[in-house]
Design brief:
This protein has 201 residues and is an alpha/beta fold. It contains three helices and twelve strands; from the N terminus they run E-E-H-E-H-E-E-E-E-H-E-E-E-E-E. The structure holds inosinic acid (IMP) and magnesium ion.
Length: 201
Amino acid sequence: MKKAVIWASLPNACMITIKDKTFVPFLEPAELEKRIIELARSLDADYEGKNPLFIVVLKGAFLFAAELFKHLGSACEVTFVRLSSYQSLESSGKVKQIIGLEESVQGRHVVIVEDIVDTGLTMAQLTAQLSQKGAASVEIATLLHKPDALRENVSIRYLGFTIENRFVVGFGLDYEEQGRNLPGVYVLEGVTKPQSSKATK
Ligand code: IMP
Ligand code: MG
């Protein structure tokens, strides 16, 4: 039988270095899972009978999405798109077009699954584009949000954790394409613990 191990005993739970940066543990896997289960329950309650279309924004949201969908009970459809506005440690402000959306969103209840809302430019543009394509409703489910970095008026209905305006990696998020595979979230040194955010509904 496989024995459960605790976060602090894992080798990668310690301080890690990716290229020129050092990161420290911030959100452990158990904490992430607990909060994601709560988000799944809210989504189940809100979308029962609506056959929502979940649009997962790659690459960063892949682990959040995987954990979320394991706990969703109601009928839904899932698709994946690419779009990236981020280069290295700072948002470039340039948002690309949606790549890979083959499904029609006309009349559909859409939920965007995102890793993190930083300036909000990506989500503002994506929600606007999906509404233009005729979606019946568009909501955002994001694991993380940095309110202090927000530059666009973005309404987040399903929010995992509010964090300080500091760079994070792990659980899907990268620093120059590395760190996505870490089972927890790590932050650049010198930051306090985040607060769990309740869904805004
Ligand atoms: P926004 O358009 O500025 O909100 O940028 C959102 C995107 O930037 C996210 O989907 C992430 O891919 C990326 N991003 C923002 N903050 C971080 C971070 O702290 N670490 C890694 N990627 C980030
Ligand atoms: Mg992203």
